[in-house]
Write a structure and sequence with these properties.
single chain, alpha/beta, TIM Barrel, 8-stranded parallel beta sheet, two-stranded antiparallel ribbon, 12 strands, 37% helix, 16% strand
Length: 327
C-alpha cells in the first residue's frame, strides 16, 4: 500500500488507516474473534495506522488492539487519544486537558496497549477550562521522555491549532472529513494545516456508514447503535441525505467501484489519510481497495456536482456533543 507522511519531520503511515472504535463500542454488537482477524488482515494488506482511544469501551478497544499486536508491535503505528476523563472503573467525567490527567491517562493506555510508547497521541477534545498551551506542554514532555513519538489534536479550530503548534509541532489533526462533511475547507482549518505542514487524518470518511450505500432505513441500526440518535439519520434529514447517497451510488456504478470506494478515493485525493472504521474483514478489504482507485478531473467534477460543501442535512452530533467540537 502507498505510504504517506504526516507532519514535519514526519510520521510515515499507510495511505489508509483503520478506525478500531466500532470493534468495541457505539455501533451495535461486537465480535472479538472477527475484530482480531480484521486487524490481522489489515496488517497483511499493508495498513499500518491503527486508531483507538481510551474512551472507546472505555479501555476495551485499547486492550483489544494490544492483544492483536502482541508479538508484532513493530508492524503498526498506534494512535490513541486522551482528554475525555475516564475513571479507572470506566466512568466518564467530561473533558480534562490538565497535564496531570494527560500523564496519568497515557500510563494507563500504555498498560492496556501492552507497549512502551504510543506513535501518535491525540488530545481527543479541547478542554475549554485549560489553556491549550498547558496541555500541549504536557504532551511535549511525554515526547521528550520517549513515551510518545508524535502528538496531535482532534476537532480543533484553526486558532487553537496555531496555538498548540507554537508549543510543540503537531504531526496530525484528526477531524471529520468526507463528502458529507467538508467544513474544514471553509473554516480555516484546512488552510492552516497546509500552511503549517500538519497532516490531516479524516475520521468518519464514509459519513458513519451512510456513504457506503448499505443504509436504506433508520431501522437498519441495532437498538444500541448510537447512530439512532444522530441528527443526520433522523426523519426528513435521513430522506434528504439518502437522496445524495443515491447520486453517489450512481457515480460509483458508472466507474465500476462501490460507493465506499468512491467516497474514500475522494478523501484520499484531497491529501488526507482516511481511517474508515470497520469490524469485519470483508468491509476492510473493500475499503482498502479504494487506495487503487484513480479519480479523473471528470470524476471530481461529477462528485462536486452531487456532493458540494453543505449538501448534507442535519448537525454532525446531538447538541450536547456539538458543544465539544472546534475548541
Amino acid at each position: 500500500m502507498e505510504r504517506r507522511t504526516l507532519g514535519r519531520p514526519g510520521l510515515t503511515v499507510s495511505a489508509q488507516g483503520l478506525g478500531c472504535m466500532g470493534m468495541s463500542a457505539f455501533y451495535g454488537a461486537t465480535d472479538e474473534t472477527e475484530s482480531l482477524a480484521t486487524i490481522d488482515r489489515a496488517l497483511e494488506l499493508g495498513v499500518t495506522l491503527l486508531d483507538t482511544a481510551e474512551s472507546y469501551g472505555p479501555f476495551v478497544n485499547e486492550q483489544l488492539l494490544g492483544k492483536a499486536l502482541a508479538g508484532r508491535r513493530d508492524e503498526a503505528v498506534i494512535a490513541t487519544k486522551t482528554g475525555v476523563e475516564i475513571t479507572d472503573d470506566g466512568r466518564a467525567l467530561g473533558l480534562n486537558g490538565r497535564p496531570e490527567y494527560v500523564r496519568r491517562a497515557l500510563e494507563r493506555s500504555l498498560r492496556h496497549l501492552g507497549t512502551d510508547h504510543v506513535d501518535l497521541y491525540y488530545l481527543h477534545r479541547i478542554d475549554p477550562e485549560v489553556p491549550i498551551e498547558e496541555t500541549i506542554g504536557a504532551l511535549a514532555e511525554l515526547v521528550a521522555e520517549g513515551k510518545v513519538r508524535h502528538i496531535g489534536v482532534c476537532e480543533a479550530s484553526a486558532q487553537t491549532i496555531r496555538r498548540a503548534h507554537s508549543v510543540h509541532p503537531l504531526t496530525a489533526v484528526q477531524t471529520e472529513y468526507s463528502l458529507f462533511e467538508r467544513g474544514i475547507e471553509h473554516d480555516g482549518v484546512r488552510d492552516t494545516l497546509e500552511e503549517l505542514g500538519i497532516g490531516l487524518v479524516a475520521y468518519s470518511p464514509l459519513g458513519r456508514g451512510f456513504l457506503s450505500g448499505a443504509i436504506t432505513s433508520p431501522d437498519d441500526f441495532a437498538e444500541d447503535d448510537w447512530r439512532r440518535s444522530d441528527p443526520r439519520f433522523q426523519g426528513e434529514n435521513f430522506d434528504r441525505n439518502l437522496a445524495v447517497v443515491r447520486e453517489v451510488r450512481r457515480l460509483a456504478a458508472d466507474k465500476d467501484v462501490t460507493p465506499s470506494q468512491l467516497a474514500l478515493a475522494w478523501v484520499q485525493h484531497q491529501g488526507a489519510v482516511a481511517i474508515p472504521g470497520t469490524k469485519r474483514r470483508r468491509y476492510l478489504e473493500e475499503n482498502t481497495a479504494a487506495t487503487e482507485v484513480t479519480l479523473t478531473d471528470q470524476d471530481l467534477a461529477a462528485i462536486e456536482a452531487v456532493a458540494p460543501h453543505g449538501v448534507v442535512t442535519g448537525d454532525r452530533y446531538t447538541p450536547e456533543l456539538m458543544r465539544t467540537l472546534n475548541g
